[in-house]
């Protein structure tokens, strides 16, 4: 048997749509795999009642098929589905790492990224790597077709998860198909600023680099109370705020000394909108861990 702890992740980070991602040091999934003649899946934990156990409909079933590694797979969910915190990516990445070890397939973590992304296609319809890359490799990742760049960084974050659901498919439908050149230039500048900030572990630059005018404004409309939560976080010391992945989680960058105050402010912001929420005081962390 092999056991993997796979972290939550946050993708896009505002200016890096379908490209940027970070691993979070909490929450996480735990995936256990044992050899079997055919794949079976058992899911427990937060939101497990909404996750299909049919291998043809579960992300880890696609990963097991891609690796030709049938197994009894047990997933203890710590990352809520439809949270914007890479729930499906945690399961996909964890299963890929565990099955690779169980069957001694010999793939490196980088080579497992496109395999784990096949699981993401089950949920979103497309094999995106922006969440599975940091889930496998840790740190801040820049995922492009055929290549992933990883940066170790020390950045404090707050991920605030409201008790509402936004599906990845719905969040992708609202993304504009066209953009004005001024907005494209603005986004490129923000993405470059954020990348430099990650390399320097500079919360000011990372927060400034989250700003963009294309994807976030459209997706924020799907999140009840987003405007108030964003303002509250900034007033409490956050250096930048954006939608985490497809949402509904809201991600704030801050200095470590301000993390508790920012978390409390974000919870109050959602409460003012009549929405219950949970805040994770976290930071950019490591990738999946094989026990």
Automatic annotation (TrEMBL):
Family annotation (Gene3D superfamilies): 3.30.230.10, GHMP kinase, C-terminal domain
Positions bound to ATP: 80-90
GO MF annotation terms: ATP binding; homoserine kinase activity
UniProt xrefs under SUPFAM superfamilies: GHMP Kinase, C-terminal domain (SSF55060), Ribosomal protein S5 domain 2-like (SSF54211)
Subcellular location, record wording: Cytoplasm
A single Gene Ontology CC term: cytoplasm
Pfam family, one: GHMP_kinases_C
Pathway in which this enzyme or protein is active: Amino-acid biosynthesis; L-threonine biosynthesis; L-threonine from L-aspartate: step 4/5
Catalyses which reaction(s): L-homoserine + ATP = O-phospho-L-homoserine + ADP + H(+)
Keywords: Amino-acid biosynthesis, ATP-binding, Cytoplasm, Kinase, Nucleotide-binding, Threonine biosynthesis, Transferase
Domain annotation GHMP kinase C-terminal: ranges: 197-268
E.C. code: 2.7.1.39
Main location as per UniProt: cytoplasm
Domain GHMP kinase N-terminal residues, every copy: 60-139
GO biological process: threonine biosynthetic process
Protein role: Catalyzes the ATP-dependent phosphorylation of L-homoserine to L-homoserine phosphate.
Similarity annotation: Belongs to the GHMP kinase family. Homoserine kinase subfamily.
PANTHER family according to UniProt: HOMOSERINE KINASE (PTHR20861:SF1), HOMOSERINE/4-DIPHOSPHOCYTIDYL-2-C-METHYL-D-ERYTHRITOL KINASE (PTHR20861)
Designated name of the protein: Homoserine kinase
């Amino acid at each position: 048997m092999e056991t993997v702890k796979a972290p939550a992740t946050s993708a896009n980070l505002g200016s890096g749509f379908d490209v940027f991602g970070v691993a979070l040091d909490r929450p996480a999934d735990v995936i256990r795999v044992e050899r079997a003649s055919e794949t079976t899946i058992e899911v427990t934990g937060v939101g497990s009642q909404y996750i299909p156990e049919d291998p043809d409909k579960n992300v880890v079933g696609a990963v097991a098929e891609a690796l030709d590694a049938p197994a009894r797979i047990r997933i203890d969910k710590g990352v809520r589905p439809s949270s914007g915190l890479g729930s499906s990516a945690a399961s996909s990445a964890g299963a890929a790492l565990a099955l690779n070890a169980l069957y001694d397939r010999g793939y490196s973590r980088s080579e497992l990224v496109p395999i784990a992304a096949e699981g993401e296609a089950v949920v979103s319809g497309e094999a995106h790597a922006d969440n599975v890359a940091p889930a496998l490799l840790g740190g801040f990742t820049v995922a492009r077709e055929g290549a992933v760049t990883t940066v170790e960084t020390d950045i404090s974050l707050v991920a605030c998860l409201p008790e509402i659901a936004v599906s990845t498919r719905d969040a992708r439908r609202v993304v504009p198909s066209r953009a004005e050149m001024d907005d494209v230039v603005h986004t490129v500048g923000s993405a470059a600023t954020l990348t430099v900030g990650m390399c320097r572990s500079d919360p000011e630059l990372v927060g400034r680099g989250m700003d963009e005018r294309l994807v976030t404004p459209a997706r924020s409309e799907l999140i009840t109370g987003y405007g108030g939560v964003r303002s509250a976080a900034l007033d409490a010391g956050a250096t930048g705020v954006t939608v985490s992945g497809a949402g509904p989680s809201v991600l704030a960058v801050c200095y470590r000394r301000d993390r508790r105050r920012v978390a409390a402010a974000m919870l109050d912001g959602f409460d003012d909108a009549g929405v219950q929420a949970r805040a994770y005081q976290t930071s950019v962390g490591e990738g999946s861990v094989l026990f």
